[in-house]
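User: Quick sanity check before I run a bigger batch. Here is a single chain. Can you write out its predicted 3D structure?
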Amino acid sequence: MRTMKKIMMLGVAAALVVGGTGCVMPIWTGTEYDYGALTFVTYNDSNRPIDNKVDPIKKGTASSHKFLFFLVSVGDASIDAAMTDGDIRQIHHVDTDYTNILGLYQRKTIIVYGD
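Assistant: Done. Predicted structure follows.
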């Protein structure tokens, strides 16, 4: 009986260690590959092109929040939502901020700079 309890505790500990490392699979969100902390933008809408000649004088943000290992997810962390927030018509560049607290809480924020 004690051996079974030790095996179960070891299994729970291993699951917590593996789950808490922050390892993620890349997810295609429609406009980008989401690697957690890394975001590769492939936003190529002809109405809103990325133009580095534009002065990055405006900033818009959009966030999504996930709770309890993705069981509950709220928010819109899209480039369009960030552009709407900052009243941006032309994009200079896009940045991202990612927070993960042991998988219990995660926040992803897309930050768009432009004019």
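The chain is about 25% helix and 40% strand.

User: Great, the batch can go ahead then.
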